[in-house]
Amino acid sequence: MAEASLAISMSEAAASSWRLHLAWFAATTVVVYDHLSTLDLEIELVWKKKWTLIQILFIINRYVPDAAFLYGAVSRLPVAYRMDFC
Fold it and tell me: What is the per-residue pLDDT across 28-85, written as a single tens digit (0 to 9) for each?
């Protein structure tokens, strides 16, 4: 009976982990979509202007979290998918 209980709890843990992966990828997709949808305005209003401290802080604030999201998304891929890149 304990073995069946352990199998059920492991199955639930795997399902929960899978849902977490899906939520992470969904959040990453929303962030990337947001950045792509406003990229034309950002290029016009930020990148083409003279650089100021505010613009530098904006760029850091906008793209450092993106790097963290993408790193998190890639690190959550199953090992088999990551090994294809090697």
Answer: 889 889 989 999 999 999 999 999 999 999 999 998 988 887 887 777 766 655 555 5
pLDDT of residue 24: 81
Which residue from 57, 35, 55, 53 is spatially nearest to 45, judged by alpha carbons? 55
pLDDT tens-digit map of 5-16: 655 676 776 677
Q: At what angle do helices 2-37 and 53-75 cross, to 10 degrees?
A: 150
Within 10 angstroms of residue 28's Cβ, the number of other Cβ atoms is 18
Rounded distance between C-alpha atoms, residue 26 and residue 5, angstroms: 31
Cβ(46)–Cβ(56) below 8 Å: no
> CA angle 38-69-64, nearest 5°?
70
Nearest 5°: phi and psi at 44? -70, -45
